[in-house]
Each structure stands twice: as C-alpha cells, then as structure tokens.
Amino acid sequence: MNKRITIKDIAKELNIHHSTVSRALRNDPRVNEKTRDVVLAYAREHEYQTNMNAVQLRGTSNNAIALIVPNINHSFFADVISQLTNIAFQKGYVISVFQSNEKYEQEKEIINTIIQHNFAGVIVSIAKDTQKSDHFRLLKKFGIPLVFFDRVCEDIIAPKVIVNNYDITASATEWLIKKGYSRIAHITGTNIINVFRNRDQGYQDTLNKFNLVYKNSIEIKKDFSIEIGKEVFQKLWSSTQRPDAIISSSVNLTLGILVQAKILGVKIPEELGLITFGNMMTSEIYQPQITTIEQQETEIAQTTFELLEDMIANNNNQIIVKEIKAQLILRESC
Amino acid sequence: MNKRITIKDIAKELNIHHSTVSRALRNDPRVNEKTRDVVLAYAREHEYQTNMNAVQLRGTSNNAIALIVPNINHSFFADVISQLTNIAFQKGYVISVFQSNEKYEQEKEIINTIIQHNFAGVIVSIAKDTQKSDHFRLLKKFGIPLVFFDRVCEDIIAPKVIVNNYDITASATEWLIKKGYSRIAHITGTNIINVFRNRDQGYQDTLNKFNLVYKNSIEIKKDFSIEIGKEVFQKLWSSTQRPDAIISSSVNLTLGILVQAKILGVKIPEELGLITFGNMMTSEIYQPQITTIEQQETEIAQTTFELLEDMIANNNNQIIVKEIKAQLILRESC
DNA sequence: CTGTTAGCGCGTTCAA
DNA sequence: TTGAACGCGCTAACAG
Known about the structure:
homodimer; alpha/beta; six-stranded mixed beta sheet; DNA-binding
C-alpha cells in the first residue's frame, strides 16, 4: 500500500506549483497546453485520485445524494432505488442508500449522519414510525435540499412525489361494486402514513357514494408479511363480518390471503373478489390471475430525481407536489 | 437557512479557544468539567454537527463503507443489502450502496468514486461483465480494505464469502437422479462468474459420477427474467433434447418455466422435475410447491461484515475464504 | 501563463 | 486545564 498521491506530490516531482497542477487537472484554460499534458500524463501514470473530502471541505461542490427508505428489500423500494441509482450515476451523482427500518429513531440518526457528511441532497420515503418532523427541519436548517416520495411528511414544506392513492383506490372500489360485490374489506397499513390514509379515504368515500353499509378497514400495524396476510384472512373469513371482496395494500398480504383462501377452499373470484397493490409479475402463474394496482416506479424515480436536481442546481425552493398515476390492471380475480 | 455552525463559532461565542471546544465535544478528559458542560450545552442548543469532511481530511477516521452489487432489485442482493445496512448501522458504520448494472465500466467508475471519497472499506459482488481486476487492485493500492461476497473476483487476493455452489448443485442433481430422473438440464448464468461455473461443475460431475449421458447446460447471458425463462423452456421442451428435470439458477427463470409449463400442459413433477435456486417464499401458493436451494442471506451478510470490520480495525490482511452452506429444501416439484 | 498566499473545519502537537 | 500554531488536500483570489 503506497501512500496516496496528492497534487503537491505531483507539483514537487514536476517542479511546478501545486496550484498549477490543480488547474491543469481541472482543465482550467489558463494553463500552458504542454504543462497540462505533462501533469495529466503524470497523474494518469501514478493513478492520482482527487480527495473529495478536501474539495468538499472548501464547500465547492458535492455530488453525493442520500436516499432514505423504510426497507430496501421491499420490491417497490428496491425498484425505485435501482432506478434512482442509475439516473443519478448517469448524471454524475452518487447515491448512498440508508434504511430506516420503519423507525423514527433510526431515521433521525441517519439524518444526522447526512448532515455531518454534507450530502448535496436527500430523498426520503418516511418510516411508519415517524410522526415528528424536527429532523427534516434540521436538514433544511443546514441548507440541504430535501424531496419526499411516496410516503411523505405532511407538515414540512418540501417538494413531494406522490401516487394518486385516493383516486386509484376509489376506482378499484367502484370497479368491485360494479362487478356486484357489496361487502368489500380494505386491508391496509397504518393511517399515520399518507399513503394508507389516502387509500382508505378513497375506499370509504366510494362506499358512501354507493350507499353500501358494509365497511371494514383493517389497519395492519406490523410489517406486511405472508403470515400476517394468512392470519388476517383466517379471522376475516370466520367472522360474522365476512367480506365478499378485498382490496389489499401489499403483495405480501395478498399472497397470505391467497394461501389461506386456498386452504379454506374459498373460490376466487366467485366467493371472493380480490384486488391488490403491487406488481404481481408472476400473476400468470396464479389461478386466477390477480387484478393489480401498479405503481410507476420508473416515473416516480425520474420525477423525484429531477425535483431534487433542480433544487440543488438552481437553489429552487418551489413547493411542488407531483402526482404519479398508478394503474388498475384488470385480470381474473374480480 | 442559517450558516453551518463550527467549533470556531462556538469558541468565539464562549470566549475560549476552538481547540478547547474540540476537546470538550469529544469528551477529552483534559478539560474542565464546567467548561465542557457549557460547550456541550451550547452545541446542543445550536444544533452543532461535526463536519466529517474535515475530520476525514485529517485522516483520523471514516465510518463509511461502500457496497457494490450488480442489481439492487434482485431479491438475493436486496436481502443482503438490507441485512448489511442494519449490521453496519448498529456498529456505527454507514453503508453506501452502488449498483454496477452488471457492467465492468460502471464498476470501475464506482471504484474511482469510492477512492475519491475515501471510504473505510468496500464490499463487492462483481458484475457479470467483469473479467479484469485492475480496478480492485487500485483499491488495494490506496489501502482501502476489500471483501468479496457471492460473486468473487478470482485473481485478487482478498477475503471472500462464498456459497457452496458446487456441493449444493451436486446434491440437487443427485437427488433428482435418485428420484429416477435421467435427463436433467441445468439452466444457469454465464460461466465467467464463479457462482454459475461452480454450480455447473457440480451438476456435470454428478452426471458423470452416475454415468448419465444426457447433459444439457444452458448458459443464459442476458438478465434472468420471466420472459427468458418462458422462451428457454419453450425451446427446450419442443427440442429433441427434451429433459425430464431442470435445475434453475434463478427464481425469475423458474417462474417463466412454470408459466410456460402450464401453457404447454406439462405436469410437474410427473413429466418434469424441478429444483430452483432462491427463496420461493410463496411456494405454498404454487402447485406443486417448488423444491428450492436457499442461500443464507443473513449469515452471508454477517460473515462478510465481520471480515471487513476485522480488516478495517486490525489492518488484518489474511486471505480468508469462508463458505456459507446453502440448503436444499425438499418440496413437491421433484 | 504561473506562483504566492490564505483558508475551508478539525484534531494534535507543543507550550504555557 | 487551556491556548497557539500547524497541517490534512484542495481551490480561489491576487500578484506577477
């Protein structure tokens, strides 16, 4: 392991001043072509690499963006992360991914780290747990641009990219009603999060609009899992509140429902209509094929990044809220 | 947006020297208790945050670790990333995730970024495309600890965490043979990568051991996808080389196989035995339930992190290769 | 076109 | 127990 080579090392070796080296490396026009070539050749030869800590310390620039999500290994977030990472890379940015594990405390610590490392900007989808917003406010205080996507923080003024959860859930509910289902249950996440609250509102308003009396919003506070899906459906089916259709907020819950429905011999779509959020790419394998509400991960990533980039580049601080439309993909399950 | 507060600001305000502030903030014992309390109170009050760029510039320390994977939105990697992020966070490290998109060029650029930002260590699972190792060598030259997991670089001396791909594929093959299958095909990835090469070797050696003549290794060079799985199975089933069993290297391929098999009316396990790598958590829903080879993501993450941590902390440079045992989970598909 | 100087924020001497 | 001075690697302002 050799010691890291610096501009001063190069300067000393070439008998020029290190500021000249600095200029040459950054293609500053005010430097002799020959000198520049010599410097660049030497740098390449000795594998010189800029020390970004020094550059950033001077406050000149920073191309690192932080991304905070509740869970990395959740298909929706994994897709968005993947897309964002590519877009960012292509534009010369680097993305660091952080995982809050749905915990406010972790989110807070992550924010501190981000401030300490002077990231150029932050993209966040908040934890279930997060009800305070002081940590996001801190970010703003330090002048670090902030953009939310999907799960947003309501009481912070910042650009947000959201999904039309209210409308799409209303559409899904309406579709079920028109198909003749009348006892529709909604299995979803905590009402604290905008995403789930809006979905539920869309569901409830539509029931009211069509004067349906059966109303059953089941709020899952734990992590969405196949197990939970099974349990919930078991309870639901054996209760007096048995539904004839379900809208599920997560693929995992849906898989649990499917497993348990199979065990109980429940026929879909005859006895139970089913619509789920999420891409069931494998839907062809299930019988019946499941009707899904699909979110546009690529578009979400693209829009989110553009908003942040705009803030970083132009110091723009408009309070834009962009809505990305999810799509109801009709299949056999209802 | 207020300007960032520094130790000098605190010093000026409190009429003491900034070096005293620095000591107080780090709980250096050689500072008056009262002075320290005043400093800490002021710092908290004004939300002082260390500038890590300055700290790192001095070469003192760095708690940021870089992680490079081919794809973030691939369940195996997503799981490992998630685990690693948690372990790291818990131990006071921060993980930045980078995605090579299976491209050598991107991997190389990422490595440069990592060097420039002076990360404390790097964890890598290499791209399919990567056949050179100069960029990893560069990392070593800069004294940045490096650990590989799963997909490793063969001609670099570094700690590696691998899966027993040879043995487990041999076991799977043997199992199929003992179940009476004799025309076993192997659908897997490019032979360039250790993972797929070893699997194929285990497959081939076992066929030889049992003197089976049918041998059919199908090397998928594109991304594993459901579509590709469908295509491959369609070709395979309609060819003269029709197998009576398949070992698949990826869940996506397997899903494609299942879809196409259903379309063609192929009966599993009667007409076709099937074993796949990957966790099919939803296996209960498929009929029949699929026999899987499951990798221990948690153990892989844990071991990988420990190796890296050891290198960072103790400047340890032993060339350890740890093998994590995958498990064959027998179900109905063979 | 090139060199000099200063300073980003911090921690670590060495001196008092 | 505290202060003064220095330097990490780099860029920018100024001077030549």
